[in-house]
Design a protein that fits this description.
Aminopeptidase; elongated; alpha/beta; 12 helices; 22 strands; Alpha-Beta Plaits; binds zinc ion
Length: 439
């Protein structure tokens, strides 16, 4: 069978299984789970991958799955990933009313699309014609949320890093992977369906505790040290630094207070904050982070409080592999109009796929078919064909291009790729960014 015939067969197989792919996505949508708690989602994806005759490892990083196709073949390994977790958005129509979990970032879509790639390549038996291996990975915990919960399970030894892909790198699940891809949904303008080559921000994560002295708020406030005032000053100090951030660094600092006090009639002595310091480059993030730490300390100093800053490795900036993006675009052009594809652009968010991109050739295109901003109650699918089926098809066709004919194309891309970091350098970098500063 030649490559075009093979591609045709895979497209037909995905079309034939359209309902299964969409129904799986909708099932995940109906039962949103937060990162490192995706127990039901893991079970569901495991059973769908097993239906294809693949052997599936479960709970690879607390939760998550990995299935290997062609595992006994020689040749490079391409990983196709889908993220399993949701965000918290209580007001979303499908939120879990207890936990607030809701698929307002569209991860149910990309996980179903990943399954669609597996169905397309495996059910059609196209994999037999390919000269390399394919890993289908349902990855836990992309959203960097619930920092306190994650610190707790880290202490319990259940995991080390807050991002699921970071954890997979640490545990060696990507050691034998040579290149990787995933898609993310995005509310694109109506006349666009695909975005390739976007850049995105990296960040460091911070948990901050202001420690004051409690006192009766009415009868003896002079004996207290108000930790909430320290936090409020610290926030203003951060704002006062914003004019020093370089435009090109795309710095964003956006703290929230997760605990503001215990009782209105007690001077707050324990106030907690979480924040990211985001930016386009590692140097930019480090510079802004120094200023944020200075601002936090100054807020505490002003009222005689103490501050404990726990820095947690965040994610690296998003960089796409141009050669893989070109292949993805070529395959997209078989399914959508040229005018529906956008190239470049800026994504202000962050993803732990940025970490993967620093280690191996990888792509993270955005796909439309949805409306409403990510992480808001308005996020919803408006065109299931574009949201679910289109990315499954484009990714499957791209895998064929990479691994057909002795995996010539994949080998060429791997040979041309200069990793920004080795795995060892990467893990050292994470460790360096893992520290507690007490003032
Ligand atoms: Zn998100
Ligand atoms: Zn997301």
């Amino acid at each position: 069978m030649n490559k075009e015939q093979l591609k045709q067969k895979v497209l037909e197989t995905i079309d034939k299984n359209r309902e299964t792919i969409i129904a799986t996505g909708e099932k995940i949508f109906e039962n949103p789970e937060l990162g490192y708690k995706e127990f039901e989602t893991t079970k569901l994806i495991k059973s769908e991958l097993e239906k294809l005759g693949l052997s599936v490892e479960k709970d690879i990083a607390v939760t998550g799955v990995r299935a290997k196709a062609n595992k006994d073949k020689d040749g490079p390994t391409v990983a196709v990933m889908g993220e399993l977790d949701s965000v918290i958005c209580y007001d979303h129509e499908k939120s879990n009313k207890e936990t607030g979990a809701a698929h307002a970032c569209g991860h149910h879509i990309q996980t179903a699309a990943m399954l669609g790639v597996a169905i397309g390549l495996v059910s059609s038996e196209a994999v037999k014609e390919l000269d390399g291996k394919i890993d289908f990975i349902g990855v836990p915990a992309e959203e960097y949320v619930e920092l306190e919960y994650r610190s707790k399970i880290k202490e319990e030894g259940k995991m080390t890093y807050f991002g699921g892909k970071q954890e997979l790198i640490l545990k060696g699940y990507l050691d034998d992977v040579d290149m990787s891809m995933m898609i993310h949904s995005l509310n694109l303008p109506e006349d666009k369906k695909v975005v390739i080559g976007s850049k995105g921000n990296g960040f460091v994560g911070k948990e901050v505790q202001f420690i004051g002295q409690e006192a009766h708020a009415g009868s003896a406030p002079e004996e207290g040290i108000n930790a909430l005032n320290a936090a409020m000053l610290a926030m203003n100090n951060i704002h006062a630094n914003r004019e020093t951030f370089l435009d090109g660094d795309h710095i964003r600092v956006h703290p929230i207070i997760t605990k503001g006090g215990d009782l209105v009639n007690v001077v707050p002595a324990d106030v907690r904050m979480e924040t990211y310091v985001r930016g386009r480059t590692i140097e930019g993030i480090e510079d802004a982070n120094k200023k944020v730490n200075r601002a936090l300390k100054a807020g505490a100093d002003a009222v005689g409080a103490k501050v404990k800053i726990t820095e947690i490795p965040g994610y690296l900036p998003l960089l796409n592999n141009n050669d893989m993006d070109s292949l993805f675009k070529e395959n997209a052009l078989a399914l959508v109009k040229d005018s529906e594809i956008e190239e470049g652009g800026e994504f202000g968010g962050s993803t732990d796929f940025g970490d993967v991109l620093h280690l191996m050739p990888s792509i993270h295109p955005f796909i439309g078919g949805v409306q409403g901003n990510l992480h808001t109650r308005n996020f919803k699918i408006t065109d299931p064909e574009t949201a679910y089926i289109l990315p499954a098809k484009i990714m499957a066709l791209t895998v064929i291009d990479l691994l057909f004919d002795g995996a010539k194309k994949a080998k060429e891309i791997i040979d041309n790729f200069e990793p920004a970091m080795t795995k060892e350098e990467y893990l050292k970098f994470l460790d360096k960014n893992s520290r507690i500063i007490e003032n």
